[in-house]
Amino acid sequence: MRGDRVEIVVDAGGEARTYDIVATRNGRRVEISTSRGVVEVTEVTRSGTPVRTARFMASRVLALVEHPAEPHGSG
């Protein structure tokens, strides 16, 4: 859903950097997968087609925070 957001905090050699991946349009969502030491955060369409992807080394990820979109009609 539009508004889905994932915040990734990564160790960048002595400092922490924060990255945000956001579902930019209606019907898109953000998915997270982890395999072989890599964390992958992908914005996908309703049909599952990836729009953009960010990859991080799992050993460098300090925090991964999911902020789901608010249900329609609230707020």
Please count the beta strands (DSSP E, at least 2 residues each): 6
What are the low-pLDDT stretches, counting only 5+ consecutive residues below 50?
Answer: none
Identify the quaternary structure here. single chain
Strands of the largest sheet, in order across it? 2-1-6
- Note the overall shape: globular
Tally the helices. Answer: 0
| Backbone structural class | mainly beta
Biggest beta sheet summary: 3 strands, antiparallel
Structure description:
This protein is an all-beta fold and 75 residues long. The protein has one domain (5-67). Helices cover 0% and strands 57% of the residues. It contains no helices and six strands. The chain has strands at residues 5-11, 16-22, 29-35, 38-44, 50-57, 61-67. The strands form two sheets. Strands 2-1-6 form a three-stranded antiparallel β-sheet, with no helix packed on it. A three-stranded antiparallel β-sheet has the order 3-4-5, with no helix packed on it.
Summarize the structure.
By secondary structure, this protein is an all-beta fold. The protein has strands at 5-11, 16-22, 29-35, 38-44, 50-57, 61-67. Helix content is 0%, strand content 57%.
Please give a handful of descriptors for the protein shown:
single chain, three-stranded antiparallel sheet, mainly beta, 75 residues
Secondary-structure topology with pairs:
Blueprint: E1 5-11, E2 16-22, E3 29-35, E4 38-44, E5 50-57, E6 61-67
Antiparallel strand pairs: 1-2, 1-6, 3-4, 4-5
